[in-house]
Design a protein that fits this description.
Helices cover 39% and strands 18% of the residues. It is of the alpha/beta class. Helix 2 crosses helix 3 and helix 9 packs across helix 12. It binds S-adenosylmethionine.
Amino acid sequence: MEEKRTERLSDLSTMKEILGRHGFTFSKALGQNFLINPSVCPRMAEMCGADETSGVLEVGPGIGVLTRELAARAQKVVAIELDTRLLPVLAETLADYPNASVVHGDVMKLDLAELIRREFAGMQVAVCANLPYYITSPVIMKILEEKLPITALTVMVQKEAADRICAKPGTRACGAVSAAVQYYAEPEVLFQVSRGSFMPAPNVDSTVIRLNVRPQPPVQLKSEEHFFRLVKAAFGQRRKTAQNAVSSGMGLPKAQVAAAMERAGIGANARAEQMTLEMLAAFSNELLSLTNS
Ligand code: SAM
């Protein structure tokens, strides 16, 4: 009986043989750093919540090293891959996994809500991916903003991106992405992955994080759209006080911004990174009331 290739795909010589046979060369522009550390994918697959009753959506399967680990655990796996050159590779590497399929397309352009409805009817769905680094935050934000019916996103990202995403609002490391992500999800750092775990090796280490999607937002907003504009403006010019950054970023009179901050109980000289999610929400709600009145 032919041995299933699950363990061997991350093996460097196996990967080189498959890619060589398909005449594949890595595209830096598509963020193609494939995992060659055999312990990473099983851990990610275990920790993303995949089980025999659930579906998993993967972004960027590469040659399918994580896809196979997910398919061994989940009821169904659908992997979105943009690079057409990988489709024949995946047809081969996923041949033993009838519960795994590949959708060819750009994750940023696909209608993910429709895809989930079509592919995962009646299943709990999780996202699990070793994300292409050039679009880490846009992919995470697209998935969260679209309020897809998913339980969590378990993603590998560059260590610096993980630090930013997981930084608590109200701490120095916090940025617009941390605040935006944490409105939708509770981030958790799972484990670190060294740069030597990839082929080709990138210049930075990586971190696997899990974003546990909140059933309800942690703060009440009058307008999400206004909140996200304010967050972007407040963190956009970090050397300025939040008052100045929001005033120039949103094109509003300083006095109006100052009044909103005062009504929200925030000190006039506060900077965005000193504000908790509750403070940012109160700031947005008060500013919206003032600008609408
Ligand atoms: N999952 C594989 C692994 O861990 O070895 C590959 C991960 S590699 C970091 C990122 C993958 O995302 C590549 O296969 C790349 O072709 C794919 N990709 C890049 N941009 C994409 C996009 N916009 N939509 C879907 N897939 C994309």
